[in-house]
Each structure stands twice: as C-alpha cells, then as structure tokens.
C-alpha cells in the first residue's frame, strides 16, 4: 500500500514538473519574441502599422479586443487538442467550472462587445439601418450553415442524422439576437441625459432596450426551465439523468433543455457523445441545444453593454473601473444563484445547460481579463498583444482550420506511448503553436478572413 502511494505521488510530481518546465519554455520563447520585436521596431522605424495598409482600420480598434479574442481562440485550440489530458484544463462533466469552460463564453461575450463598435462605425459611414440588419442576418445564416458542415467532421453526414446545433450555430443565434436587436434600437446620435447621474450612467442608459430584452430572455428561460418538463420527470430537474444521484431521474437528462431538444429536434440530430452521457448514461443531450440559446443571447447582450462603455466613456480609468464593477456584480450574482457551491444552489454553474449562473460568472471572468488586457495594451501601451493579437484578427479562420485539420499531420501526430501527460501536452502545444504561427503569417501578408 505504501509502495503504491509513493508511486502515485512520484508520477503526480513528475507530471507537475513536466507542466511547469513546458510553461517555462513557452514563457522564455514569448520573452525572446518580444525582445526581438522590440529590436526590430527600433531598427526599422516606420509610421506604418505592423501588418501594413490593411491595418489602418484596425488602428482605430482596441488592441485589447483582438488580444482577448486571440487568447480565447488559442486556448480553445489547445483544449480541443486535448490540453495534455489535464482534467482542470478541459470541461466539467456536468455542474462546476473548469478552465476549458471559460473559452466558449469568452468568445460569445467578446462578440457582443464588438457589436456597438461596428454598428456605430457603420452609422458614421452613412450605411442605412436596414443594410446593417441585412448584413447581420446574412452573417448569422452563413455562420449557422458553416457550423452544420463542420459537425460532419466528427459526426454523421447522413441527412437523417445531421447534428443541427453546435458551437458556430450557438454563436450565430446569439449574434443574430444581440446584434440585430441593437442595430434596430440603437440611436444614430445618442445624447446623454444632463446631470451628474445621467453622465455617470450614460453607457447603461444607451443600452436600455438591450437590458429589457435581456430581462425578457432570462424570464422566458427561467419559466421554461422550471415549468416545462417530461411527463415522467420532476419539474425543475437540472441533472444529467442516467445513474447520477443513484438513478433518481434516469430518463430526464438535461431537464427541460434536454426534453425540448429531443422533442423538437429529435435524438438523431443531437450530439451523441457528450461527456455527461459517457459518464452517467441516460438519453441524449446537446450542450449547444435550443434552450441555451436564450441565455447565450443574454451573455452577448452583456458584452454589448461592455462595448457601449467603450463608445461613451472616453477615459481609460472610467472604462476599466466600470468593467471591474460589472465583473464584481456579475460574480456575486452568479455565486448567489449557485449557492456558493457546485451542486446545491438554485441554479448551479453548468456549461451544458448554459445556466444563468454560468453566464454571470463567465462574463465576470471575461470582464476581468479584458480589463487587464486593456490596461496593458491600450492604457499603458506596454504590450502590443503579441503573440495573441494576430490569432485574434483571424479567429474564425483558425477555428475552421483547426477543426478541418483535426486529424491531419503535422498538426496532430501519434507515438506508441501517448498515455502520459508529458507526451499529450507536447502534442497539444505543438498543434496550437502551428496555428499561432499561421495566424502571424496571415497577418504579415495582410490576409484577414471574416464572414
């Protein structure tokens, strides 16, 4: 027994040392990269931006947004590549929050942040409101159809078994709701109310209709979640079904969300191999199903509010202080809903159900990270966002590329002994690094792909 304990301790310690060594190497490479760039910038003094003329428009953008988006896509690729097999870097099986669970909501939230900036820019160029809305609808449809196509990489391409929803589809729906609604309701010329209070809250007041929509979506989601249920299942059930909690509700996987998906979409059109089903069994549930689209749209609308702060609060201090204040409010609200626990709250933190506590907590994390990025890249200007900014400028291209090349060399490879954290971590970092290099080459050649 003692020998087994010592062996387990030795293996665990060796894995931690391997992870720390790799992180040290990556940090050293990052520092070296920054030093070389600093030297080259002093040698080649130029008024042009790093990536040439096409970056003239990007110059007006916040570096923090592209940097944060780049961090999200890089970590998403790393997680999808296996994250070295470390459980805390992947996704929680059901309730709870792991590092990998922060990536998708960060993407969704930052998409919302960009909405007020792009809509106001279109207004400034004289683009009619109907054209802006048409562009949003067209982009959402393209994103949704592209997501269905990508689903066939891992799933069936039989028409009767096509998975309908997925990551890009969830982004498309949230974008359509948040950006479409903002484009329809945002005034072309906003005049803040007079007085100290009006000036202090002008960014919030400018998004008043978005807050109304968010409230309606939250009310609808809550009502459906706690009222609608399978006739053979308890109302308000939020568990994974199967053998969870000693088979208390074996056929009720996902509660109302799972029931609606199975009823409206059909089991054959849902994700068949979710982690929750692999662990607990039970009926099929889709982590990107219909009901979660409501709270995903709410998360995008929370991003819209952060973007409105950029438009109407001009000082660095005002922007960062408001973002951090919202982060504190959202974190406390999410923790209260979850009961400051993983399992025993009214609304547990759950990515599979995209619960409101999950929305609030992950939005708080996103606000905090954006505040840090903004302070270093835009306020103090001591960091240009490298090496994440280039991936952030081509996030959609990297996401599609890494999905298509999921089983292709040189992005992925195998050796006879792949069961150790060290080898799997090296393989994941290798594949992720290749996509970062590709992003920098695309940016250097002024290739920016958008929908």
UniProtKB/TrEMBL annotation:
Keyword Membrane: yes
Keywords (A to Z) from UniProt: Membrane, Transmembrane, Transmembrane helix
Chain ranges of the Heparan-alpha-glucosaminide N-acetyltransferase catalytic domain: 61-186
Organism for this UniProt entry: Euphydryas editha (Edith's checkerspot)
Transmembrane segments: 20-40, 68-88, 94-115, 136-156, 162-184, 204-228, 289-311, 323-341, 353-376, 388-409, 421-443
UniProt cross-references to PANTHER family, sorted A to Z: LD22376P
Pfam families: HGSNAT_cat (PF07786)
Identification of the protein by name: Heparan-alpha-glucosaminide N-acetyltransferase catalytic domain-containing protein
Lineage per the UniProt record: Eukaryota, Metazoa, Ecdysozoa, Arthropoda, Hexapoda
InterPro entries: HGSNAT_cat
């Amino acid at each position: 027994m003692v020998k087994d304990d010592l062996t387990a301790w030795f293996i665990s310690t060796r894995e931690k040392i391997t992870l720390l060594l790799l992180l040290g190497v990556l940090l050293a490479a990052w520092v070296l990269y920054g030093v070389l760039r600093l030297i080259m910038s002093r040698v080649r003094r130029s008024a042009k931006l790093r990536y040439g003329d096409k970056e003239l428009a990007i110059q007006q953008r916040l570096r923090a947004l592209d940097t944060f988006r780049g961090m999200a896509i890089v970590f998403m690729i790393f997680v999808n590549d296996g994250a070295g097999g470390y459980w805390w870097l992947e996704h929680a099986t059901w309730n709870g929050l792991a590092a990998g669970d922060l990536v998708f909501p960060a993407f969704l939230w930052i998409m919302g942040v960009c909405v007020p900036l792009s809509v106001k820019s279109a207004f400034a160029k004289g683009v009619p409101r109907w054209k802006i809305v048409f562009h949003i609808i067209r982009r959402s449809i393209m994103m949704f159809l592209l997501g269905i196509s990508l689903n066939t990489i891992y799933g069936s391409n039989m028409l009767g078994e096509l998975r309908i929803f997925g990551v890009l589809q969830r982004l498309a729906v949230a974008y359509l709701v948040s950006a479409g609604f903002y484009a329809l309701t945002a005034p072309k010329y906003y005049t803040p109310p007079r007085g100290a209070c009006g000036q202090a809250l002008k960014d919030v007041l400018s998004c008043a209709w978005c807050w109304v929509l968010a409230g309606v979506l939250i009310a609808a989601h809550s009502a459906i979640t706690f009222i609608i249920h399978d006739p053979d299942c308890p109302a308000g059930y939020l568990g994974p079904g199967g053998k969870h909690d000693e088979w208390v509700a074996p056929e009720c996987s996902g509660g109302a969300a799972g029931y609606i998906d199975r009823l409206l979409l059909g089991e054959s059109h849902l994700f068949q191999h979710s982690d929750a089903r692999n662990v607990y069994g039970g009926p099929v549930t889709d982590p990107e199903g219909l009901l979660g689209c409501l709270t995903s749209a709410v998360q995008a609308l929370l991003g819209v509010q952060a973007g409105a702060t950029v438009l109407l609060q001009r000082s660095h201090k005002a922007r960062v202080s408001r973002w951090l204040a919202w982060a504190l409010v959202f974190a406390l609200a999410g923790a209260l809903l979850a009961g400051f626990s993983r399992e025993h709250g009214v609304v547990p933190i759950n990515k599979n159900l995209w619960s409101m506590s999950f929305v609030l907590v992950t939005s708080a994390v996103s606000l905090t990270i954006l505040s840090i990025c903004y302070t270093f890249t835009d306020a103090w200007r001591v960091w240009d966002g490298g090496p994440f900014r280039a991936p952030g400028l081509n996030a959609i291209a990297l996401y599609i590329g890494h999905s298509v090349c999921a089983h292709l060399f040189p992005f992925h490879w195998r050796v006879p002994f792949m069961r150790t954290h060290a080898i799997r971590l090296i393989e994941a970092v290798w594949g992720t690094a290749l996509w970062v290099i590709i992003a920098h080459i695309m940016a250097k050649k002024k290739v920016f792909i958008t929908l």
